[in-house]
Every structure is written in C-alpha cells, then in structure tokens.
Specification:
Elements (H helix, E strand, L loop, with lengths): L3 H20 L3 H15 L3 H5 L2 E4 L11 H9 L3 E9 L10 E8 L2 H5 L2 E2 L5 E2 L23 E4 L3 E4 L6 E4 L5 H13 L15 E6 L25 E4 L4 E3 L6
Parallel strand pairs: 1-2, 1-6, 6-9, 9-10
Antiparallel strand pairs: 2-3, 4-5, 7-8, 10-11
C-alpha cells in the first residue's frame, strides 16, 4: 500500500483529471445515463427487496442523477434516508470537522419541499432534523439500512478480490459514516475478509466516464486503509458490476 503522502498525491492528481473530464459531459448524456442506471436498479433484486435505503441527493451536473430513484423508492413504500451534514459533536484530531448522518425523507411532499443549497443539491432543513429518524443518531444503537447508493468521483474494480474501489471528493463523509455505521452495528458487521464488511449492501452509481479500467500497472483508483470497498457498481451504459458476493 502506498505511503500516506503518495496516496494523497495520487488522489489529488486523479481528482484534477476527473474534474476536467466531468465538466465536459453535457446534460443530455448525464440524463440518458441516469435513466439507464435507474432501469437497471429497478430490476435489481436487492433493491426490490430493500425496505430501507440510503441514497445521495444529486448535484445538477457531474454525477448520476437520483431524483427518479428517490421518487420510485418512496412511491413503492420504501423508507428513504439521505445525507445530512453537521458539525462533529466530539471534535478530535482524528474526527472531521463536519460529519455525515443519514435521515429519513417522510414522503414525496416532504422531498419536494427541500430547498437547494449553493451546489444545487436538495438539502434537509436543520430545523426539521430532530423530527426525523437518524441512522447514527445520538444513541449507542445504530439502526440498519438494507442498501446504500453512493456517489463518487471515480470507480474501478479492485484486484484481485473483485469488489469495487471508490474515490470520493476528499472530504471523507461517506468513509467516516461507514466507519461509524459499522461500529454501531457491532455483531451485525461481517468479516472484512468477505468484502466491504457492512450489513448494508453498498453500490456506487457511476457515469461511464467515472468507471476507470484497470491496466497492467494495477487499479487506476488509489485507495487507503480507510477507504471502503463497495459490493457493486451501476454504470451509465446499463451495466451492473458486482464483486464475488453475488446479490442478484
């Protein structure tokens, strides 16, 4: 595994490359790819059987759009949980200044009432947070999710185990959330030798341009010990990529 300094440099370089690549993708392509992913997802058995899903609320550009997924899940009686960022209540050198929890969307009308932030992302009003169910919350008990649909900047198949590598935007929100989720789930967490280790299935959503192919030099997406692997990846060309633990 690369040193911490080398890993940071490799991620910084890849994020710069991906930022330029993603800026060149037009809205029509993003919408077409998002529709293809939606069609694949809504025939996927783990999604169909999931009762409680976590899903990001998308920016208008540069990533797979999730509006149709949120609406479909709510219309089909699933409990939907979305990211909520807040200042850490236990600041320390090892804790990010801002951390992520996931809170529930109560209905379609609740979802439609969300205001967009400066990034254009529908955002939970802080005034309503205490009335919502939290995945992590303030107690010692972490409640479960069946599936989490995750964004990222770049993805690749991990070699040799075949799970999916993910590189985010560098804030560590999802990796730290998953670390706390696994701590809270305790005995429900699976052996990390079996892959991502969570009792929730982790799937990335990737535009075709975000899925990078490995070459002889290894995976094009650098990861460290705190980066979580994913069980699978839904790609904008309609493909479903899964690790050795098949969920279909």
């Amino acid at each position: 595994m690369a040193s911490s300094t080398a890993l940071k440099a490799a991620k910084k370089e890849l994020r710069s490359i991906m930022k330029k690549k993603l800026a060149g993708i037009n809205h029509e392509s993003i919408n077409c790819q998002s529709t293809a992913i939606f069609k694949t997802l809504t025939t996927l058995k783990p999604y169909l059987s999931a009762q409680r899903i976590g899903v990001y609320l998308s920016m208008p550009t540069g990533e797979v759009q999730t509006d149709a997924i949120v609406r479909h899940a709510l219309e089909n009686g699933k409990q939907v949980f979305v990211p909520y960022l807040h200042k850490s209540r236990t600041p320390s050198p090892d804790t990010p200044k801002s951390v992520m929890d996931m809170v529930d969307i109560r209905s379609l009308s609740d979802y439609d009432s969300l205001k967009r932030d400066s990034w254009g992302i529908p955002t939970i009003d802080a005034a309503t947070v205490h009335d919502r169910e939290h995945i992590l919350g303030d107690s010692n008990k972490t409640v479960s999710l069946d599936m989490i649909l995750m964004p990222g900047v770049a993805f690749a198949k991990d070699s040799p185990d075949g799970f999916v590598r993910r590189m985010g935007h560098g804030k560590g929100f999802y990796d730290y959330f998953l670390h706390r989720y696994m701590q809270g789930r305790g005995s429900h967490v699976k052996d990390l030798s079996l892959g991502p280790g969570t009792d929730a299935l982790l799937y990335g959503l990737a535009l075709e341009e975000q899925f990078l192919q490995a070459d002889d030099s290894g995976s094009p997406v650098p990861v460290g010990e705190h980066d979580h692997l994913l069980h699978g990846l839904l790609v904008g060309d309609g493909k479903l990529l899964e690790g050795p633990i098949k969920t279909t």
